[in-house]
Amino acid sequence: MWAILEGGNGRYELVGAHGQTMKYSVSAAYNFIRDNARKLGLSVAVMQSKKIIIHLVSIATPREGSSAELAFVIGMVSALSGLGVRASMAVTGDVSLHGEVSAVGGLPQKLAAAKSHGRRVVIVPRDNQRDVEQLDALLLESLEVIYVSSVTDALQAALQPIYRS
Known about the structure:
The two termini are 26 Å apart. The chain has a single domain, classed as Ribosomal Protein S5, domain 2, CATH 3.30.230. It is an alpha/beta fold. The protein is 38% helix and 24% strand. The longest helix is centred in the N-terminal third of the chain and has 16 residues, at 20-35. It has helices spanning 20-35, 44-49, 69-81, 107-116, 129-133, 137-140, 151-158; strands at residues 2-7, 12-16, 50-56, 84-85, 89-91, 94-95, 101-102, 121-125, 144-148, 159-160.
């Protein structure tokens, strides 16, 4: 998934392979950001004058579920703020209307996929910590797992300044 800004009308456009649940997750993430722009340190003027293009990269197996909401929030905030997302990072988590990050299912498969795709850092809901602690040590080897309870925690862990020369 990637997100970019272009001139527009303060809305978003979703492109790429997606189903109804993914559409809902992107909408929920965008609405959370719109409603909390100032708290997130984002320019309301930029949000009103730009369109966020969210591209879901096609994958071999279709995926559905709201566990990507946190990734959508991070991607859109990155585009709107000009901050980059840390390299080699994977993210999972449901986001509430109040910015709380809640547990997701299928964590062993998500961590295995992250590791097999070269991700070294994984942001996971704090509510899933017990699930992670019960996983095989071999799966967790070479993965840094960061537990978050809120969108704010996740943004602090994921975003960093982009250095341009």
